């Protein structure tokens, strides 16, 4: 196993540029080391997803709207021309785990959609109909049921949507994890300090696992940095004060670009 300094250097590089050559799931899992799976503070406070070709496919501009379930009573969703809209496997697994796995439920992680689609009404129709999983009682959960916050409308830059998400959720950028299939969106949102994962082929299960693994590993290394530089208090989402468990340590990266340490 590589020395901690070497592992830390690789991790920092991966957060400096989310579009750099992405590691495999095995590499991300190895980097996590012996992370305590019961340490809920290592999870992000909010996980956000783009919609078009990140959560679902085809994209809205490729569809004809007026979505229905066909046949009635099924979970198959089609537009008025009969084109089927489906959820990418990685998005389905991610949302199901956040809703149903005890660790994620204890952490009360918020779910958000951030999309610049030109067809927000069609997207709303689709979210109401697309079944993503069942809850712990066996009841169907749609994409609309699963979400805490939605920013779905045409906008020049997704950074505007993330400023709104921060205000609505109370979660700082450094505690957010974001998945998007467009390089432009990933680069722009990364400048805020959000941990971004590039999903050029739609969201896969490996994208989900690697994103969580890298977020957790960085949170662990941030704790090490704070133990050397002092711990500062942070405001928890319930309004109480606690030690900062993940996110912006106030340190700069070694890249010479003056970015926040946690910035992708």
Describe this structure in words.
This protein is of the alpha/beta class and 264 residues long. 37% of the residues lie in helices and 17% in strands. It has helices at residues 4-16, 25-32, 89-100, 102-107, 120-129, 143-146, 158-169, 183-190, 205-229; strands spanning 46-49, 56-57, 68-69, 77-78, 84-87, 110-115, 131-134, 140-142, 149-152, 176-180, 195-198, 233-235, 241-243. Strands 9-6-1-10-11 form a five-stranded parallel sheet, with helices on both faces. A four-stranded antiparallel sheet has the order 2-5-4-3. Strands 7-8 form a two-stranded antiparallel ribbon. α2 (25-32) runs parallel beside α9 (205-229) and α3 (89-100) packs across α9 (205-229). The longest helix has 25 residues, at 205-229. The protein is globular, with a radius of gyration of 19 Å. The relative contact order is 0.18. Residues 1-15, 30-34 and 231-264 have low confidence and may be disordered.
